[in-house]
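Work package 3, deliverable 3.1, input record:
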Amino acid sequence: MSTAAPAVSVDGLVMRYGDKVAVDGLSLEVARGSITAVLGPNGAGKTTVLETCEGYRAPQQGTVRVLGLDPQRDRARLLPRIGVMLQAGGAWSGVRAHEMLAHMASLHAHPLDTAMLSERLGLADCGKTPYRRLSGGQQQRLGLAIALVGRPELVFVDEPTAGMDPQARRTTWELLEEVRADGVTVVLTTHHMDEAEHLADLIHILDRGTVIASGTPGELTRDGRTATIRLVVNRPFPDGAPESLRAELGPGTEVRQLDDVSMLIHGPADSMTLGRVSRWCEEHDVLPQTLNLGQRNLEDVFLELTGRELAT
Amino acid sequence: MNTFAPAPGGAALSRMVLSQARMEARLMLRNGEQLLLAIVIPVIVLVGGVAAAGRIGLDLDGHRAVDILTPGVLALAVMSTAFTSVAISTGFERRYGVIKLLGSSPLPRHGLLLGKVVALLNVVVLQLVVLVVVGLALGWEPTLAHPPRSVLALVLSVAFGTAAFAALGLFVAGVLRAEATLALANLVYLLLMAGGGIVLPASTYGSASGVVQWLPSGALGEAMRAALVDATVDGRSLIVLAIWAAVGTVLTARTFRWE
């Protein structure tokens, strides 16, 4: 496998809608047999990149290769080998869940057993329900089942757990891990850092149409220069508290007030910062009840790289 | 247990097309509004038309009303499915992302189109069977002057009419939003049913009859009546339908957006 071409290779991709640049010279690779997450806020260009790999859009500049094939020129040869889960929709409103899955299975040469797949995705009970009456989470799970039913080598899943309850989310993650263990390459987009952190072997962080960082979850969060400190105090902060705390802590620090009595502080991960926070509390006559130095996570990485929050 | 071990590949094209056709035909027949359009309205027009014609003494060139109205209603049924149903269902398939999802499956675009045609013809045949039975029950006596020619003319009329209306229906569905398609397809259906020379012969439209014969509805109605009243192949009407089919196909090919 190491000699085979990467599952996906995007090089210098540029995509514009009118005069808006959606993807701006983006390059990334996906190793075979991995789960690769494309992480970024809404509008970062994730779906456009995916749709170019799936052959829906022709690259305006740059090259895209999927399983060594050109998604435009070799479309007919590529499509049977990949599975696609759209961000939303994809089924007739009156089609029953099991009917839709069986239909998609019938388009493939060696499909999975649809009863087993429905069972695994918790769709067995709603098999007779028309698509329009399925919950958002059920529609998502049906979409995932459709992506997998043809036993593809590579699946593209766009925001796979959007709208799912925590339990369904957990089940979906386990399923994707099993899929990877069986040798299927998974490319997923998400704006949930916990999803990327939990699932992905490799994460590409996208912002404004380019990859701003790539690495394993460990590489991206390891050895942080910065950390998130959570501060909760015994009574409401005085007016202008975030600004005055930021001034106390100096440059390179972000302070965000969550409510009357709690703030998130994003800054250097050292005891000097903690000391300054507690001194500021003393000066402002509030008593810290929680002062936690959190572990650095992808949210911090994103904030560090862009100065903006991921989950907005 | 390697449940998900890759074993990719598309099914044979014929299998995919049949599967797609079965799916679309089933959905069409399950949909209440589509069924209303496909069966209920034509039956009402036929039964009501025959009853009313007797009372108001409609002049149909010496023919009995049921013998003129039954071929017209068969033409109406073809139009309702090939134009209105195809436009509406395709419009909503675009809206719901069905066409997009199928675009990532092994089913190629021409396979999807072929599946639609097969589904459409299935539904049309079903409609014709129901309406022929209703017509016969009302006393319809199709001409027996030259049965093989009548059958040939009927098959050609259905084929050319379906092609013309389906091409026009796809054109509408491919450029407009789903709601606009729904409204326009129903409006056009009503207008052509009332004034398009489909149920009643073009000759009953007086001075407008010249125009009506050039409409796809008028041409299909005339071709159908020629087949079942006079046992003739109406070449002129078939050519008109072929022109509409060609215009619709070119427009669709130029403008259709899959998403």
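DSSP finds eleven helices and 13 strands in chain A.
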